[in-house]
Each structure stands twice: as structure tokens, then as C-alpha cells.
Amino acid sequence: MPATGFNHYNLRAPRALLDELKDFYCDVLGLTMGERPAFRSFGYWLYAGGHDVLHLSETAPGEMRATHVATTFDHVAFTCTDPGGMEEILVDRRIEFGERFIDQTGTKQIFFRDPAGNGVELNFSMPKI
User: Which of 40, 54, 98, 103 is the most buried (most CB within 10 A)?
Assistant: First the structure.
């Protein structure tokens, strides 16, 4: 049975970092807090376009999670609009970012890291001139 789509990704962190990640993804990317089942662990579900796309879960007492380390996970990518507005947000918040344009797809990409060091890619469909 093949996969039919992407559902969500989950980040686990201690409460202080979890709250920082929630604020980052809501304030910078515009994700919104949404309904989350009453699990035993604390956490948040963040939504884009009416769908939960990012789950944030608090680590258990004594559970260690490495941050800012090299793993096989490189980044998560979001489809976005208004690249100029996003660049303003990133500059205002002093978030370092890189960008490139892919001619074959007409896509502008912006790359940066979240507070835990996870890679974030934003894709903007640009009109052909």
C-alpha cells in the first residue's frame, strides 16, 4: 500500500524550547494553534491551510533530545505566498536566511533554521515574466 500524501511532522523538546518553537512557527511562518487530542503528554498541534502539519510534543522527564546536530533530517518545506513579506519578517527578527531561484520550476526558495536548529525551506511560486 503506497503512501498517498504527507500528514505532519513532530518535534520533541523540553517545555521551554517547545514554547519557543511554537512561537517561532506561529509568529514567523503564520501557522496557527489548533485542536489537539487529550494525550497524556503536553504539546501543541500547529495548522496550515486547515490541516495539522506540525506536532510539538514535550519530552518526558529525563529524556534527552539533541539539538543543533547533524542528522539525516535536513529540512521541512512549506508552500508560501508573499516572499517579500517573509523576507521582511526574517530581517526584522534577525533570522539569517539564504535564498535561490529555480528557473525550471519558477520557484523562489528561502532557507533558515528554527530555534532548535532544524532546517526550514519556504517555496514561493513566482509568475513567469
Answer: 54
Q: What is each CA distance from 52 to 9, 22, 37, 85, in whole angstroms? A: 9, 13, 12, 23
For residue 51, pLDDT beyond 70: yes
Model pLDDT for residues 75-111, shown as the tens digit of each residue: 999 999 999 999 999 999 999 999 999 999 999 999 9
Residue 43 belongs to what domain range? 1-60
Predicted structure pTM score: 0.89
Closest CA to 114 of 127, 97, 92: 97
Nearest to 118 by CA among 44, 25, 5: 25
Average pLDDT along the chain: 92
Cα 2 to chain centroid, rounded: 25
Counting the structural domains of the chain, the total is 2
Do residues 116 and 67 make contact, with C-beta atoms less than 8 angstroms apart? yes
